[in-house]
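DM from R.C. (forwarded with permission)

"hey, sorry to bug you on a friday — could you get me a structure for this? deadline for the figure draft is monday and I only need the backbone to look sensible"
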Amino acid sequence: MGSAQPDASPPHFDGQGALTREFLLARGHCCESGCRNCPYGFDAHARVTHPLRLISLCPSNTEIAEALGLGPSLVGVDDWSDWPPALVDRLPRLGPDLDIDVDAIEGLTPDLVLASLSVPGMETNVAELERRGLPHLVLDPHSLDDLWLDIARVGAVTGTSSRARDVIAELRQRVAHVQTRVAAVTRRPRLYWEWWPKPLFAPGERNWLTELSSLAGGVSITAHLPGDAVQPTPDEVLALAPDFVLLVWTGVAREKVRPDVVKKRPGWDRLEALQCDRLLVLEEGLYCRPSPRLIDGLEELAAILHPHCFEKKDR
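My reply, with the result:
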């Protein structure tokens, strides 16, 4: 959370991570007429009188906000937020992840900015939010447990903790369902996830795709490499002999991904994955963003790897 604030401003957050009553009063969101059902848990002398003004600076944050029913509170998003289209297409765009227009953010007078560190270099955005004293929450999940915690944090800040608990419980139940279905598999396919084609980028040990691969009954061939994003060479991937090559080029629409680029790599025609048509282009929005939609991706992946474990109604 941001800590740099003008001396005359009330504190943005309380000890439980929620926006303070004093801050909301200063922004005109609370009154003194009383409200028994205040979503912030304040006493009977304050209530929220109109929706918060939220800004999201990356697609996964936008999707978390939507899952918590906060879509109507969004007043601006980054250039790459694309889901759900009916929501984001009506909102002002504030620039790409590494070139956010902080002047535009300030002009939208947000009550809270959902910032991110999901892309190296986004620290600059956070530093500028802090310098200007704009209230913000920084999300940087690397695992499903991190995602559950961040959903809960956004819920605490925005008065949607009950909704957050329901969302997390439902997502956990879906994960458990997948785990139950693949529990008895004896062969775990080896997966090569490709985030970018030149130079190669893939998920490392610290990334959620390593965890998703395991939960779906597979194993990422780059799981042993330390870090979040790693850069294997084409020869290293070839030597690791993946059973599936899964293309999820970050920021590239599925229909614009070019499998022919992969097929032309020297020696890759020897890969069983390519010989058996297991070179797949998947929707990067279901795999490259730490949002609730990762569980859609998990379910899809498990059904691809182990179709015999899933009835048609489960797909």
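R.C.: lifesaver. Residues 112 and 135 are 5 Å apart (CA to CA).
me: no worries. The chain is about 35% helix and 15% strand.
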